[in-house]
Amino acid sequence: MTGPGLPTGDEKARTVQAMFDRIAPRYDRLNRIMTFGMDSGWRRKSIAALALGRGSTIIDVACGTGDFCREAQRAGLDPIGLDVSFGMLSMAATEAPLAQADALRLPLRDGDADGLTCGFAMRNVVDLSVLFEESARVLRAGGRVAFLDTAQPDNALLSFGHRIYFHKVVPRIGGWLSDKDAYSYLPKSTAYLPPKSELVALLQRAGFDDVSVSFFGLGAVQLLTGTKR
What we know:
This protein has helices at 9-34, 39-50, 67-74, 86-90, 128-138, 156-177, 180-188, 196-205, and strands spanning 57-61, 78-83, 98-100, 113-119, 139-150, 208-216, 221-228. The protein is an alpha/beta fold and 229 residues long. The chain has a seven-stranded mixed beta sheet with strand order 3-2-1-4-5-7-6, with helices on both faces.
């Protein structure tokens, strides 16, 4: 599922990588402004939802500047961050080991990790099925995943307010403070995300049980979790 004018395939991969390279220097600051600081709490809840013991190895896919890695370390976990954008990695503020890598071709052995996180990047990969299959491959049996991303509130009034804010206000703020094209693209990229039921089915087909979706921010953010069979 895509919207009009949105890139697909290799063009999408190139567009996403170049975009995040450009916006990396101000990415964290804009995240805090645009989410009113709530994004940190959403990541903490995602880490808690993994329900893994201290010392567990966590792979953070599309780690960006290391927000999820920092939250994982605070929880006593052992994260490794991977991102296709060298610009984002160069701005990272975390003690976790980092590497440049494609989320659809993770440079890890089968069953290497206990858990996997991915923040606001499901809509940025070329193929969600491959992302979920790769996630299953690198996890041990019983390993846990937590995919955090945007959503559309079910409530009509909240949905209207969210559309105005996310599709009108966010691009304007992003254009003023960072990159107009990037922050116009990011709200549009939500069209890549399938409905909740399809996300659940895709994760189950990739080899996960106990799949569930929970919502934060009055329904504007979703958390998809599951356990590898």
